[in-house]
Amino acid sequence: MDKEKETREKLGGEVKLGHCLDVILKNADVALHYPSFVKLYEQLIAGILLNKGAIKYIFDKKSNSNWYFIFARALSIAWIEDKRYWEWGSCGGNEIAKLIEVSWLDIRGKIKESMLSPNIVYEVALQVQLNDRSFGWNAPMNIELKKPDGSKIERQECLLGKQPNQWLEIAIEFKVDNHGCGSSGEIEFAFYEHGGHWKRGMLVKGVRIGAKGCGCA
């Protein structure tokens, strides 16, 4: 039995490697192992960088769905280029945004609906860390998600009392509707606190977008 056939049988027969994969991988930063199923599958579950390193794509084999991580540099962060309020740093080889102090916290992003697997309950999760000098987090963080049909999902989460110096996720979940690869709709998300009081001491790694309970790191 050749390796291609053996791998397919171990995976349960015919396995789809990801919804709208041909469209998504047009923006891959590396050469892809077409037409080898085995090598391509190994690439996808290990992760592939897209859009010049702005996004990481992983095929989550547990949920058979597309998974992404949008790095901080690819997010829209208010005042990010003003060194009085933010600065860039690194953690584990990844670039992170380091909050010095702001009164208007606003972090936004979006992803094309066609990049997500249909009929999957997804989480959009901002990964942040509060340091020992954090201050001003007594007001809750607002989390807002807007779907292509105009409907919104909103919630709040309070960061006061969260363990410092540990990465945590501020998440909101939604179900992706059935759609085709030609869909032009976008999922828009925002994490913000516009209360006007000063906040400091937060690190921003990026946003994870994956199936609820996804085991991806």
TrEMBL record:
InterPro entries listed in its UniProt record: PP2-like (IPR025886), PP2-like/Lectin (IPR052147)
Top-level lineage group: Eukaryota
GO molecular function: carbohydrate binding
Protein name (database record): Lectin-like
Species this chain originates from: Cucurbita moschata
